[in-house]
Amino acid sequence: MGAVSPAQSKNHAEKSPHRLSVTLTPEQHQELSEIARKNRVSVAWVVREAIERMLKDNMPLLHVGKQ
User: Fold this and answer.
1) Domain chopping of the chain, boundaries
2) What is the DSSP track for the chain?
3) What is the pTM assigned to this prediction?
């Protein structure tokens, strides 16, 4: 098998999932766990879905540069 070109490597990196870590309050974790349990999905799924909806709705959390 040949070497991977920089373009192929970059394309792969853009498509591969990214892992991150967040710290939640006990209340946030409890609420997410309850939503996940009721919907028979993982807490990770709930978080990903919430992020997807926020991005889709174009709801910026911070209004940087706008005053």
Assistant:
1) 31-58
2) -PPPPHHHHHHHHHHS---------HHHHHHHHHHHHHHTS-HHHHHHHHHHHHHHTT--S--TT--
3) 0.64
